Amino acid sequence: MSDIHDETYGAGNGRKHADGMADERTFEALPPPHGRGFAQTWWGQAWMKALEDTALDLAQLKAGRRLARAGAVGAVSVRPGRITAVVKDPDGTPHRSDVLLQELGPDEWDRFLTMAIERAGHIAALLDRDMPPHLVEDSAAAGVELLPGIGDLEPSCDCEAWDHCGHTAALCYQVARLLDQDPFVLLLMRGRGERELLDELHERSVARAEAPEAGAGGEAEDSAPEGVSAAEAYADGAILPPLPALPSLPPEPGLPPALDTEEEPAQGLDVAALEFLAAQAAAEAYRLLAEALAPGHERHVVEPELTVSEDAVRLAAATPGPTIEARLAAVSERGRDGLALAVQAWRYGGRAALRVLEEEWTPREASLARARAALEAAWEEGERPRLRMARNRWTVVGADVQLRQGQDGRWWPYRKDRGRWTPAGPAAHDPATALATASGSE
């Protein structure tokens, strides 16, 4: 057993079968998990999800989290089909709490062991105290569900609650911490201790390795089909399975996890800012997926990543609130007013609009000639506004209206507001359309 396992849980006590195999392990009480979640690994989180999806009373779950965080859960006994601990109320009253989980039957264990020895990586992962997703997926494909699902965790407590009470919930949260370090805890609950399981895997592995030696005439038979190189297989497209259909776009971005730990956050941790960033990450992932699923996406040029300053503007455009806005203004080095102006540009056209706000450059003469022709064609003689050109910025003489040309050839409308040129609308390919937007006639 690994050093971290021994140090964290202690040696524990073990009951044994008649054949010497341990069928119970006892783990010493764990210290409170100050400032941490109960599960860091994906399988520990899957255990908690089974609890939280099953419980009918969310108030009891919160009570259980508080008890577990307060160190109210005593030593945890784990044996096939059951976990047990004494959990104390805030006033010190002890309660014996049990949570039952269905053991796997002999046929299910046979399928699991057969699947495991076919993939050496599964055995290596377990020995490394890991439970990779593909092990669970391959087990499910063999008809063996290792992780509990909704309704699989059955509570029993001497407080006589009919559903999960705060005591059984606290026990489950504590077990999630045990599972984080050692997935054999789950396998013991399902009916097999670590030593017993590894011995069975070893026996099957040896039998599998010795099986080909029984060939006719005393010679080993090589029944494995002759393979081909990966390059040859890939070149022969006829043998490749068809690609699966693209996933459909969800109706909306996913919800980020709630940071309800009922504990004071660690010093320097801004919970509101973290929740805001999580929500924006979900929204950005949704936008990227929508773009990836759109027709012709493979022909689009991949743009470089946003700079820190650009990303600060993107986040500020989501209206995060005054405190976070102040931090974004400092990070972007724009100040509050400069950030507000940049946000206005971003909302009209993202990165391209932000660049037009900040950049000055000289268009080619051919581009300028096309723009002049488009403007002349849009108005009758004598009605056409006079424009003063300075590089890529054309200002209407005698009016607080301006056009700005972007590097992509589009035109952006601007108006002067309190002495500053501010974005007035989205881009247009036709300068006359952009000018009409800036003038307020559209």
- Kindly report the spatial arrangement of strands forming the biggest sheet: 1-2-3-4-5
Give the termini distance in whole angstroms. 74 Å
Helix fraction by DSSP (H/I, runs of at least 4) = 40-55%
Average pLDDT works out at 83
Question: What is the string of SSEs from the N terminus onward?
Answer: HEHHEEEHHHEHHHHHHHHHEEEEEH
Radius of gyration: 33 Å
SS-based structural class? alpha+beta
Strand fraction equals 5-15%
The total of beta strands comes to: 10
State the assembly state of the protein chains.
single chain
Shape: elongated
Low-confidence stretches: 1-22, 214-221
What is the number of helical segments per DSSP (H or I, 4+ residues)? 16
For the sheet with most strands, the description reads: 5 strands, antiparallel
Question: What would you note in describing this structure?
Answer:
The chain is of the alpha+beta class. The protein has 16 helices and ten strands. The chain has helices spanning 3-9, 42-54, 58-69, 106-117, 120-127, 133-141, 166-181, 184-189, 194-210, 230-235, 271-293, 308-316, 322-332, 335-358, 365-378, 431-439; strands at residues 25-27, 76-79, 82-88, 94-100, 154-157, 387-390, 393-396, 401-405, 411-417, 420-423. The strands form two sheets. Strands 1-2-3-4-5 form a five-stranded antiparallel sheet. It has a five-stranded antiparallel sheet with strand order 6-7-8-9-10. A hairpin with a 2-residue loop joins strand 6 and strand 7. The termini are far apart.
